[in-house]
């Protein structure tokens, strides 16, 4: 479907199945992908600018050397992606990617600078955020079951209504982050103390 070394502008792609395929050096600007299948697809050195993915399967998708600018993923199933293979700018102005109602479980964001990222009402089971900068981000309503946080910058982020997170305050930067009850009590788990609700 896509030709390598080509540019696509304001295109709409629906029900496109490119699972297990490889696409290289393609630029997408203002494109909409709806109900597509990109499981185990390789996008090598591609650029996505102001694109939107809706209800798309992207499990184990490889974005080797690719970059995103203001791209939104909405209701996408995208488990097991190693985001560290992407090309991220040294200076980040706003968030390059936005996740809304997505399943990003088993994905790695290890040591990435993703300040101001949007991750609303997502499923992030066993995702790796160690060493990542996700400050000033909206992480509200996300399920972080068994997700890894260590030396993670969560300062000024909105974590309200999120659940199942295991964040050790002394091992992460949570300065001025917003939490909600009762989940915030989990921040005290590492203290091995008993809390009386009465």
List the helices and strands and how they pair.
Blueprint: E1 7-9, E2 12-14, E3 22-24, E4 27-29, E5 32-34, E6 42-44, E7 47-49, E8 52-54, E9 67-69, E10 71-74, E11 97-100, E12 118-120
Parallel strand pairs: 1-4, 2-5, 3-6, 4-7, 5-8, 7-9, 8-10, 10-11, 11-12
Write up what this structure looks like:
With 198 residues, the chain is mainly β. The chain has two domains: 1-78, E3 ubiquitin-protein ligase SopA (Pectate Lyase C-like), CATH 2.160.20.80; 85-190, E3 ubiquitin-protein ligase SopA (Pectate Lyase C-like, 3 Solenoid). It is built from no helices and twelve strands. The strands form three sheets. Strands 2-5-8-10-11-12 form a six-stranded parallel beta sheet, with no helix packed on it. The protein is elongated and about 60 Å long.
Mean pLDDT: 91
Secondary-structure element string:
EEEEEEEEEEEE
Estimate the global geometry from the Cα principal axes: elongated
Low-pLDDT runs of 5+ residues are none
Helix percentage: under 10%
Strand percentage:
15-25%
Which CATH architecture of the largest domain is right?
Answer: 3 Solenoid
Please write the CATH class name of the largest domain: Mainly Beta
End-to-end separation in angstroms reads: 63 Å
Total domains: 2
Task: Give, in spatial order, the strands making up the sheet with the most strands.
Answer: 2-5-8-10-11-12
Number of strands: 12
The tally of helices reads 0
CATH superfamily of the largest domain: E3 ubiquitin-protein ligase SopA
What characterizes the major β-sheet? 6 strands, parallel
């Amino acid at each position: 479907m896509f030709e390598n070394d080509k540019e696509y502008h304001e295109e709409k792609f629906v029900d496109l199945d490119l699972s297990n395929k490889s696409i290289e050096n393609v630029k997408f600007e203002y494109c909409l992908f709806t109900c597509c299948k990109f499981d185990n697809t390789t996008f090598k050195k591609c650029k996505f600018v102001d694109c939107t993915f809706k209800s798309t399967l992207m499990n184990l998708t490889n974005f080797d050397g690719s970059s995103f600018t203001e791209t939104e993923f909405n209701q996408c199933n995208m488990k097991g992606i190693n985001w560290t293979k992407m090309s991220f700018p040294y200076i980040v102005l706003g968030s390059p990617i936005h996740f809304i109602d997505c399943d990003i479980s088993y994905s790695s964001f290890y040591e990435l600078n993703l300040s101001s990222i949007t991750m609303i009402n997502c499923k992030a089971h066993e995702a790796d955020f160690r060493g990542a900068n996700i400050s000033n981000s909206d992480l509200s309503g996300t399920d972080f079951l068994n997700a890894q946080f260590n030396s993670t910058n969560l300062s000024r982020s909105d974590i309200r209504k999120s659940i199942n997170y295991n964040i050790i305050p002394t091992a992460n930067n949570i300065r001025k982050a917003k939490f909600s009850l009762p989940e915030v009590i989990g921040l005290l788990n590492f203290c091995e103390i008993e809390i009386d609700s009465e």
